[in-house]
Specification:
The chain has about 220 residues and is an alpha/beta fold. It has one domain: P-loop containing nucleotide triphosphate hydrolases (Rossmann fold, 3-Layer(aba) Sandwich). The protein contains six helices and twelve strands. The chain has a six-stranded mixed beta sheet with strand order 8-9-10-5-11-12. A four-stranded antiparallel beta sheet has the order 4-1-6-7. Helix 3 runs parallel beside helix 5, helix 4 (about 105-125) crosses helix 5 and helix 5 (about 140-155) packs parallel to helix 6. The radius of gyration is 17 Å and the shape is globular.
Length: about 220
């Protein structure tokens, strides 16, 4: 099944993001400043049928179905990895990973996720700390939890925001390997938000959109 995330031209104050799309298995990079990144992420799950916002038209096309941004169906197909926002401190790491399933209260899906989390935690080296309270954690652990959650959700498209920033070199290399392996295993598309083309994720992108406040946007075909 072909899944594609679409959006019309989006407006963030004086900044315009041109209309574009991301297919399952495709990696697209949006290079823009941090205020625009956070505004983009904030609106990603709040527009559409739940909250009509002028200038924000985004949807997922999945087979014969179309899901507007902000709907439960859209959210179930879109994963997110936000820098240093992957954890709730008073929950265990296990509960943090399972959050999407705990909220939805679908017992069958929750049971399946609880079974799958064992292998995912072992793969990411989280087994011994799964039942520890999250508390204060490093950027590396935040990123691993976000990745683990995506591995359970199995989204068509992942929207990520520089989750590797702040990691020591050794942890950065490990996370790069994990994230690349995870993306290949999921076959998901990636929409990567960053402030610089030198962001250091190590990923290869089919396209990069350079977003500037004066709307002088450039579509680049490079790739790294």
């Amino acid at each position: 099944m072909k899944d594609t995330l679409h959006w019309d031209e989006l407006h963030l104050g004086h900044t315009t993001i041109p209309a574009a799309s991301v297919n399952r298995g495709e990696y697209l990079r949006l290079v823009m400043d941090y205020p625009c990144q956070f505004a983009f992420m904030q609106n990603l799950f709040q527009s559409g049928e739940r909250q009509l916002r002028p200038g924000w038209n985004m949807w997922l096309k999945s087979g014969d179905h179309t899901y507007a941004a902000g709907t439960p169906e859209f959210s179930s197909h879109i994963g997110s990895m936000i820098r240093n926002r992957g954890l709730i401190a008073n929950l265990t790491l296990r509960e943090n990973i399972l959050l999407p399933f705990l909220y939805h209260a679908d017992q069958q899906q929750l049971q399946q996720a609880e079974d799958e989390i064992i292998d995912i935690a072992q793969w990411l080296g989280l087994t011994s700390s799964l039942d520890d309270k999250a508390g204060e954690r490093t950027a590396y652990t935040h990123a691993l939890i976000s990745l683990a959650r995506c591995m359970l959700i199995k989204p068509a498209i992942i929207v990520a925001q520089e989750v590797h920033i702040g990691m020591p070199p050794e942890q950065l290399e490990r996370f790069k390997a994990f994230s690349m392996q995870g993306l290949v295993q999921l076959g998901a598309g990636l929409l990567y938000l960053t402030e610089s083309v030198d962001e250091g994720s190590g990923l290869e992108y089919s396209r990069s959109l350079m977003i500037t406040p004066d709307c002088q946007n450039v579509d680049s075909q490079e790739e790294k």
